[in-house]
Amino acid sequence: MVSGLQEALGVTLPTDLEAPETRQVLLDLCTKHNVNCPAPHTPARLLDKLVGEFLEEQCVNPTFICDHPQLMSPLAK
Asked: Which stretches are transmembrane (predicted)?
């Protein structure tokens, strides 16, 4: 999932998705690409909005988006 998003956006995201600086990077990407993300601006929420905008729109048939980060799946922690 993260690698697909990096490819779609042409950026390299930080490896620690829970770090405070990662939240700012994701927020800047949302602002740059006009992706609306209501508060609270958590890394998981920002990442989900970016994935919805740039990856899910490309899915035309039944598709599995794999390797979700742990911060997006609280039950997997």
From this structure: none
